[in-house]
Design goal:
The complex is a heterodimer. Chain A has helices at residues 2-36, 58-66, 69-100, 105-116, 119-132, 139-163, 167-175, 180-191, 193-209, 212-217, 225-232, 240-260, 262-269. The longest helix of chain A is centred in the first third of the chain and has 35 residues, at 2-36. By secondary structure, chain A is mostly helical. In chain B, strands 1-2 form a two-stranded antiparallel ribbon. The chains are: A mainly alpha, B mainly alpha.
Chain lengths: 276, 295
């Protein structure tokens, strides 16, 4: 009887802690979400309106059509999809080579070293290159610079996936007369399709969310979504509702990726070191 | 013989495009940074690049603003133990299966999906004085007075670094939670069951069995955060802009300002090289001290 009551109070404490944790993680997002639907008169009130009484879509209209949000979505989509396709193409080949041929651990460490260097290390040389080629402020500039983190990432992830496939499978294909390239194309790629899709989704998310490089390499012709945020936020009169509407739209695709690919997220964020 | 050369050629087709790209992508920037770091070359002027040897590096030695930014980046490291403890606690709390577990962990994972810029924005809005929900709660519960403030303050101005750390914790605790949860799920149950039968308390089991078995998972997670903390840019850029003054100008932000605000790209290149050396040394020291098996 005593232990039953003890268990019960333990369960209540546990539920309370979980509730507090959920409030901590969800409330800031809830605040952004409701702000995006509040009319201008409710953006800055005292006391703040925790539950909005008037809902409007005007912020989305203003953000998308008057403040460049639509162009931002277009630019971010082009950049993220191109960077994703190129990284998967190159990364799966390199990953297969690393997994099956003896290129050695050095290459692996070399790829990991990419993660050590700050993003700006990769941005400055590309900035110089693109300014000489008159390619600053174009999609190509951002796409190629995003490859600096997405290709090593895709290589590493794909290597981990290929490592999980028994060597016998592609070796027997090669014995039967398949070339290594053929074995890669006809056998390994189809088997690792789930891995490829998960890697692609995460590459898309990283490129979509990337901020520093996009900010550095674009100005007016190209405006990826994250770079729109400091344009609206930080000046004298802040367009709270509009910036939240744009930020909310920018957050939808990566949130879908995280929810759908939760199973692969551990692998994805630890570059395959921890298997989920 | 012909068969072998055919095989080799076929392998080359697989390796070459990827290898060339990887080299271009990783080597070119590093080498070009080294090249830039020995030049004086302000972009936007007609001035030609001029070789100045190690002058940029000598300037760095007496660059107080760089030391300031380094100290800010090192200060950010205190968020790692907090994220570690918080994440581990959450993983233990949500370890067992129960209804709604998937929904709860999905909500906890949401911050991981967001762009740094969005995280900075969200916390900027939550913490804004007078109109923000944080200030409202503090006023309603009279917490400002209880904590010894004579009047409400703006956290982003009075405690800029702590505000950045708070936003970082919000974004990255889910990462620790995620890896620890996966690590716990992969552990064998027998030693834990055996300890429980022998009468060990939950705390003893965690302290002496579970955590030691998670050693590698913990090591990898901390290592990844260690590298990423020095890259922190988006949150400070949006939340504090490095201010007030230089009070929250972390290393990436300072290099960014040198490059874009002062158009001093060659000096910025020299700075990034120093940062790479520092972070590499930290990473190697961590790997050595922690002694985890790197596969």
């Amino acid at each position: 009887m005593i232990s039953l009551r003890k268990n019960r109070s333990k369960a209540i404490v546990k539920s309370l802690i979980i509730l507090l944790v959920l409030i901590f993680f969800a409330f800031p997002l809830y605040w952004m979400f409701t702000m995006a639907f509040k009319p201008e008169s409710d953006w800055a009130t005292f006391p703040p309106k925790i539950i909005p009484d008037v809902w409007t879509l005007y912020n989305f209209y203003k953000g998308l059509f008057l403040m460049g949000g639509l162009q931002g979505i277009f630019d971010s989509t082009i950049i993220a999809i191109s960077s994703m396709v190129l990284s998967i193409f190159l990364g799966s080949m390199a990953g297969y080579a690393l997994s099956r041929f003896r290129i050695g651990q050095n290459v692996a460490f070399f790829i990991l070293s990419q993660r050590i260097a700050p993003a700006i290390t990769f941005t400055i040389p590309f900035f110089m290159l693109f300014s000489n080629l008159k390619l600053l402020d174009t999609h190509i500039a951002v796409i190629l610079t995003h490859l600096t983190f997405n290709v090593p990432y895709a290589t590493w992830m794909m290597k981990a996936f290929f490592d999980g496939i028994p060597k016998d499978i592609d070796e027997s294909a090669m014995v039967d007369g398949c070339s290594p390239f053929g074995a890669f194309l006809r056998i390994m790629l189809p088997i690792s399709l789930p891995g490829i899709i998960a890697t692609a989704a995460l590459c898309f998310m990283f490129s979509w969310n990337e901020f520093l490089m996009a900010l550095f390499l674009t100005r007016s012709a190209v405006k990826p979504l994250p770079t729109l945020i400091p344009r609206f936020y930080g000046g004298h009169d802040i367009l709270y509702g509009v910036v939240c509407a744009v930020a909310l739209l920018a957050s939808v695709p990566p949130i879908i990726v995280v929810v759908l690919f939760q199973k692969y997220l551990v692998r994805g964020l630890t570059m395959g070191y921890i298997k989920g | 013989m012909r068969k072998i050369s055919y095989l080799t050629k076929s392998r080359l087709i697989l390796i070459l495009p990827a290898l060339i790209t990887l080299i271009l992508i990783i080597f070119f920037p590093l080498v070009y940074n080294i090249y830039l770091s020995v030049l004086r070359w302000r972009i936007g002027t007609k001035e030609n690049p001029q070789f100045i040897g190690i002058e940029n590096f000598i300037t760095i030695i007496s660059d107080l603003r760089f030391y300031n930014s380094l100290s800010k980046s090192f200060y950010l490291l205190i968020e790692i133990p907090i994220e570690f403890a918080f994440g581990l606690g959450l993983a233990f709390l949500l370890q067992e299966e129960f209804r709604g577990k998937r929904l709860i962990s999905s909500i906890i994972l949401l911050p991981l999906a967001l762009s740094d810029a969005v995280v900075g924005l969200v916390w900027g809005l939550v913490l804004v004085p007078t109109y923000g929900p944080f200030d409202f709660i503090m006023r309603s519960l009279d917490l400002w007075k209880i904590l010894g403030f004579t009047k409400p303050i703006s956290p982003a101005i009075v405690y800029p670094m702590e505000t950045i750390i708070l936003a970082d914790i919000w974004q990255w605790t889910p990462f620790f939670f995620l890896t620890f949860l996966a690590g716990l799920a992969a552990l064998p149950v027998e030693p834990i069951e055996a300890a429980r039968v022998d009468g060990a308390s939950s705390f003893q089991i965690a302290r002496h069995i579970t955590i030691p078995m998670l050693k590698n998972v913990i090591g990898v997670t901390i290592l990844i955060r260690l590298m990423d903390v020095f890259k922190s840019f988006g949150i400070p850029y949006i939340l504090t802009k490095g201010g007030p003054g230089f009070a929250s100008e972390v290393v990436s932000l300072y290099i960014f300002n040198q490059a874009l605000q002062f158009l001093n790209l060659t000096y910025a290149a020299a700075l990034t090289l120093i940062v790479i050396v520092i972070v590499t040394m930290l990473v190697m020291a961590f790997v050595r001290i922690y002694k985890f098996e790197f596969r």
